[in-house]
Amino acid sequence: MPLTRTTPERLNLPAEIMPSVVLTPYKHGMKPLEMQILCRLVASVRPRRAFEIGTYWAISTANIVRNGAPGIEVWTLDNKNRFLDRPPDFPPIPEDGVHYLKANSLSVALPPGLYRSMDLVLVDANHRRMHVASDTRLALDLIAPGGMIVWHDVMEPPEPYPSGGRALEVFEYLSTAFPETVSWITGTSLGVWWAPVE
Q: What is the pLDDT of residues 81-125, one digit of tens each?
């Protein structure tokens, strides 16, 4: 279904986020504004359980922890350990309540107790269409009723992208194959969808 343009104001996102939030820009990562909006999205949900598909340097992970509910648990998935080239001046890798999973999201087998239990799922991994489709299906399996799914790198052609345009496949999938309407936040490459409340 078509993506619908929206703004943080229309979504009634809280203006206040944790002061210790990490907004450091880095190559291929979220822009500072996007990270700030992500933090506001997290703060609006106050998740107790969150799942991230695509850990990279765990910057989003840290922000989810800092803006989630006290005692939040986060599971974050990546197909390899990318911390070896993490800049030394970055804040410490979050540890309390964070479970780092190393596996391919196309074939990962998760404990049954994780499914339909997440208040928030962030999809920000491989941007090829087959991966976006698979990661979205995984997100739908993980999200609890009333929970929020967030996609990063929703970019409309001809938006430039350092990796050679793969992020455009996120836009193409969500706008043509995803059966629900995704809210696309103006000024960012973030898309948001809320699971129905049962």
A: 888 788 777 778 888 999 999 999 999 999 999 999 999 999 999
Q: Reduce the DSSP state of residue 104 to 3 states and report it.
A: coil
Interval 116-175: pLDDT, tens: 999 999 999 998 899 999 999 999 999 999 999 999 999 876 555 554 456 678 988 999
Taking Cα atoms as reference points, which of 122, 19, 115, 23 lies closest to residue 67?
19
Angle among Cα 149, 155, 160 to the nearest 5 degrees reads 145
Residue 95 belongs to some domain of the structure: no
| Cα distance between residue 123 and residue 131, in whole Å | 10
| CATH code for the domain in which residue 73 is found | 3.40.50.150
One-letter amino acid of 175:
S
For residue 88, what are the CA distances in angstroms to 81, 83, 102, 138?
16, 10, 22, 32
Range of the domain at 44: 4-13+37-79+101-194
